[in-house]
């Protein structure tokens, strides 16, 4: 045990004290704090100033219609009739004509885009109301202008239930599945962080193992430490380094939440938790940690195959390829169904499970059983990967054969 801890501490401390670790961690922390103040940074470069009062120069009829339309829009400015004076943070809406509606908007400063959108939306509604009045349309005729077409689907090979489902979808406007924005952010952060940590630390642990073999340092190491103990210490140290960096990022996020006001960002992007958010966060953390352990164990196993540093990238190609495929499956299916055939099958494939299962956790219809099965699959896969890595490392640690396939043949014979 003492030899395991000695190798573990030496590897862990050397990686944590490395300049690359400190610089990359500092950059990510800086980005976290920049993101926490994103709205304030935007305001620094935004020269527009919100108006507090919109004054309207028109007849009483138009003013009454416009004020009635603006009220439910819940704007952050007041509507008032023009009194002849335009002060600071005020704008003037002058009606130049009603058939068709023509207006002029005057202000001494640039008006923010969201306020312009509210004004344009209100003017559009007033224009429609005035058009209906000028055409002398009845209430029923006016409602028919905004009515959706009644479409009946008669498609070969489609049964009645499918037709009814298609009709319901058409009535819903063909909208994408309703996904909570906060859950979407958690999902994106999980898979992106996992992908980049895997790519970074898989290369590091593969390099550590391969460098010891190619420099023949391993001959002195195995004289005092068992090969399996040495490998497990290396794997545990690299996993601990990656989790340490991840814990620092989480701590930075929590500190940013405590120091800065996120209310405006939350309101702008609609980041509100729902019943699935807590489940989503818990399973995302679990799959993130298990995914890192699995991929780093595989990277250590692949690094033990080679005897030349030139073969390292070739040996680590499976890690890069499978992590990239899992990343793309998860990212490009976020707006699809969580029960699609591709998502369901890939979520049970161990190398794709860490990426795809958080996607399924976003949807309430997934249930707990598939998620727990995914956790069990990863745990079993990690145990098998570590056992296989230890066996391969023990048999190939002193190998001088050049090439991955030659090492594979030799290990198979043994």
**Class based on secondary structure composition and strand pairing:** alpha/beta
Topology, number of strands: 4
What is the distance, rounded to the nearest whole angstrom, between the alpha carbons of the first and last residues? Answer: 28 Å
Assembly classification: single chain
How much helix is in the residues?
Answer: 55-70%
What strand order characterises the main sheet? 2-1-3-4
Overall pLDDT: 77
**Spans of 5+ residues with little confidence (pLDDT < 50)?**
165-176
Order of helices and strands: HHHEHEEEHHHHHHHHHHHHHH
**Main sheet specs:** 4 strands, mixed
Molecular structure report:
The chain has 414 residues and is α/β, with parallel strands linked by helices. It has 18 helices and four strands. The protein has a four-stranded mixed beta sheet with strand order 2-1-3-4, with helices on one face. A hairpin with a 2-residue loop joins β3 and β4. The protein is elongated and about 95 Å long. About 3% of the residues have low confidence.
What's the layout of helices and strands?
Elements: H1 2-16, H2 19-36, H3 38-45, E1 53-57, H4 60-73, E2 78-81, E3 90-98, E4 101-107, H5 113-134, H6 139-145, H7 160-171, H8 181-214, H9 217-221, H10 227-259, H11 263-269, H12 277-303, H13 312-315, H14 317-332, H15 341-347, H16 353-361, H17 368-396, H18 404-413
Parallel strand pairs: 1-2, 1-3
Antiparallel strand pairs: 3-4
Structure summarized in a few sentences:
The protein is α/β, with parallel strands linked by helices and 414 residues long. It has helices at 2-16, 19-36, 38-45, 60-73, 113-134, 139-145, 160-171, 181-214, 217-221, 227-259, 263-269, 277-303, 312-315, 317-332, 341-347, 353-361, 368-396, 404-413; strands at residues 53-57, 78-81, 90-98, 101-107. Strands 2-1-3-4 form a 4-stranded mixed β-sheet, with helices on one face.
């Amino acid at each position: 045990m003492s030899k395991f801890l000695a190798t573990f501490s030496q590897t862990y401390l050397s990686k944590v004290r490395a300049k690359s670790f400190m610089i990359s961690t500092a950059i990510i922390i800086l980005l976290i704090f920049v993101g926490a103040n994103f709205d304030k940074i935007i305001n620094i470069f935004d020269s527009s100033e919100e108006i507090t009062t919109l004054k309207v120069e028109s007849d009483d009829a138009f003013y009454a219609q416009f004020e009635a339309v603006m009220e439910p829009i819940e704007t952050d400015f007041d509507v008032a009739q023009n009194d002849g004076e335009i002060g600071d943070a005020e704008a003037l809406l002058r009606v130049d004509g009603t058939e068709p509606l023509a207006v002029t908007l005057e202000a001494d400063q640039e008006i923010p885009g969201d306020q312009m959108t509210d004004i344009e939306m209100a003017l559009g509604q007033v224009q429609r109301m005035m058009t209906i009045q000028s055409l002398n349309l009845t209430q029923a005729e006016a409602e028919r202008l905004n009515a959706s077409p009644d479409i009946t689907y008669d498609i070969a090979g489609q049964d009645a239930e499918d037709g009814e489902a298609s009709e319901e979808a058409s009535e819903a406007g063909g909208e994408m599945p309703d996904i909570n924005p906060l859950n979407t952010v958690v999902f994106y952060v999980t898979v992106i962080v996992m992908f980049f940590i895997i790519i970074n630390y898989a290369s590091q642990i593969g390099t550590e193992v391969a460098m010891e073999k190619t420099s023949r340092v391993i001959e002195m190491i195995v004289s005092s430490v068992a090969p399996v103990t040495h490998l497990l210490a290396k794997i545990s140290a690299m996993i601990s380094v990656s989790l340490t960096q991840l814990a620092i990022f989480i701590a930075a996020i929590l500190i940013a939440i405590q120091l800065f006001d996120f209310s405006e960002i939350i309101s702008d992007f609609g980041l509100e938790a729902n019943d699935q958010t807590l489940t989503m966060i818990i399973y995302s953390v679990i799959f993130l940690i298990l995914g890192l352990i699995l991929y780093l164990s595989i990277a250590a196993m692949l690094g033990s195959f080679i005897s030349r540093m030139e073969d390292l990238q070739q040996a680590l190609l499976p890690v890069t390829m499978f992590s990239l495929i899992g990343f793309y499956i998860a990212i490009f299916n976020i707006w699809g169904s969580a029960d699609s055939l591709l998502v369901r099958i890939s979520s049970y494939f161990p190398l794709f499970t860490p990426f795809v299962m958080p996607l399924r956790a976003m949807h309430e219809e997934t249930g707990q059983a598939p998620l727990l099965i995914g956790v069990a699959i990863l745990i079993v896969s990690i145990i098998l990967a570590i056992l296989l890595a230890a066996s391969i490392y023990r048999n190939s640690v002193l190998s001088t054969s050049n090439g991955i396939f030659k090492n594979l043949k030799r290990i198979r014979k043994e």
